[in-house]
Amino acid sequence: MKVLVIGPGGREHAIVRALSADPYVNEVHCAPGNAGIAQDVTTHEINAQDPQAVLGLARELASELVIVGPEAPLAAGVADALIEAGIPVFGPTRAAAQLEASKAFAKDVMAAAQVPTAMAHVATTAAEAAAALDDFGAPYVVKDDGLAAGKGVVVTADRAEALAHAELCFAAGGTVVIEEFLDGPEVSLFVICDGKHAVPLSPAQDFKRIFDNDEGPNTGGMGAYSPLQWLPEGFVDWVMDRVAYPTLREMEKRGTPFTGVLYCGLAITKRGIRVIEFNARFGDPETQAVLARLKTPLGAILLAAANGKLDDAEQLRWSSKTAVDVVIAAENYPDAPVKGAVIEGLEEANQVGEVHVMHAGTSTDAEGNITVAGGRVLAVVALGDDLAAARANAYAGVSKISWSGAQSRSDIALKAERGEIVVNGESK
């Protein structure tokens, strides 16, 4: 099978790596890719948000499956163009991708499907936003209704900061969703969907804040780990029964069946499990950790989903090992990342036991050096017999890599390793 992966980041590098190990896949291409992906497979410079450009490349390569990684191409209708041309695509249509592209739409779907989620108000003016903030009280949660690359959310105890974020969204022509704050640990669960059927992957947890101890502004994610040994028994089954399948049925009822990854961002609160948000694609950096443990060939699973035959796919098999990934970001990320620095130590990091480095914001300069080209630059992914071993391996890899201004968190999965995750008042 020939597979084309659309996207430029760490998530796509992880997908490419998994496909390259798939015995059913004999050729992998990526567009546009990055410097690390280009070392593994052939990459193509196209505008990934142009449906006709993606379609043209898929036809040129005779692709038998196209996997759309990021949210922006999905919202632009890339999957629609491929479906219309009869090319199997793993990723939702533009209409179905509204589950991520519009938080207000997602709230409406959840309400209709009786999916438990945070109470929320949609605000279009500063006065409406102020009233909603006062209704819920601190901590305040303000979300840009549209796509914001994982950085459109402000959670703060400062009412003025919350209102200022809302006003920035209004000034850009958008609306905001203001929610009640959900306490408790957060979990990411990827669910592979074919419109009717669904298969869960291994749960993961990511870390959004830029600094240790969950301080500083939100980012696209600074690291992740999987599996989560502290999850309550029956957690995944509950999410499938109360969240994933009701959402799929509601989307099908609306005439917009959902095919692709339904990313369920969840909080385990004192009042039970609640949906924080939906995404319409693999999450980054959780994908790097989750796919590092997947033993079932990825291409066959995603092709079955694209063709509406997920119920015929083989049962998923997982490594018994734990995976941890630590993101190394550019100087001044997430504000205005400093680009252009040459990255040192990549080969040394990849030689650390059970470590592999996934590229995200990288490119190659005229001398052939790998350089910083984005905010989140690399993810150092490691396996280990347990969480402590996986963390040790990951940070051993991180220690080999350097450039001026590089930054990473030192506490990814540390609380879990120490048994300090609190679920319903109990440490796990």
Architecture overview:
The protein is of the alpha+beta class. It has helices at 10-20, 35-40, 51-61, 71-75, 78-84, 98-101, 103-113, 126-136, 159-171, 235-253, 286-293, 298-306, 346-350, 387-398, 414-418, and strands spanning 2-7, 27-32, 42-43, 65-68, 89-90, 120-123, 140-144, 153-156, 176-179, 186-194, 198-200, 205-206, 209-211, 215-218, 223-226, 259-269, 272-279, 322-329, 355-359, 362-364, 370-372, 376-384, 422-423, 426-427. The strands form seven sheets. Strands 3-2-1-4-5 form a five-stranded parallel beta sheet, with helices on both faces. A five-stranded antiparallel beta sheet has the order 12-15-18-22-19. A four-stranded antiparallel beta sheet has the order 6-9-7-8, sandwiched between helices. The chain is globular. It starts with a strand and ends with a strand.
What does the secondary structure layout of this molecule look like, with pairings?
Elements: E1 2-7, H1 10-20, E2 27-32, H2 35-40, E3 42-43, H3 51-61, E4 65-68, H4 71-75, H5 78-84, E5 89-90, H6 98-101, H7 103-113, E6 120-123, H8 126-136, E7 140-144, E8 153-156, H9 159-171, E9 176-179, E10 186-194, E11 198-200, E12 205-206, E13 209-211, E14 215-218, E15 223-226, H10 235-253, E16 259-269, E17 272-279, H11 286-293, H12 298-306, E18 322-329, H13 346-350, E19 355-359, E20 362-364, E21 370-372, E22 376-384, H14 387-398, H15 414-418, E23 422-423, E24 426-427
Parallel strand pairs: 1-2, 1-4, 2-3, 4-5
Antiparallel strand pairs: 6-9, 7-8, 7-9, 10-11, 10-16, 12-15, 13-14, 15-18, 16-17, 18-22, 19-22, 20-21, 23-24
Helix pairs in contact: 1-11, 3-5, 7-10, 8-9
